[in-house]
């Protein structure tokens, strides 16, 4: 699986829809994707959603290794945040930003 190029909110939402159907990911990873998708559907700021997903994947990586496909999504989300975060915004993706599974 190759990195995703996320350019707008609609594309981000479509990627999450398709990714949730991926059979090569773990149930907890799928849950993170579904929570992110639900927030995007409710018009939550996309960088906030990406940040929460990254923090959640980091938490998962500590307890168990991420699947290969999820690692690709994780890196794509980090790139999306880096390219779109406003200048001067602190980059804090602490454990408190993660979804409660």
From TrEMBL:
Give the species this sequence originates from. Lactococcus lactis subsp. cremoris (strain SK11)
Q: Which InterPro entries match?
A: LciA_Immunity-like
Pfam families, from UniProt? EntA_Immun (PF08951)
Superkingdom field: Bacteria
Provide a GO biological process annotation: bacteriocin immunity
Lineage runs:
Bacteria, Bacillati, Bacillota, Bacilli, Lactobacillales
Task: Name it.
Answer: Bacteriocin immunity protein
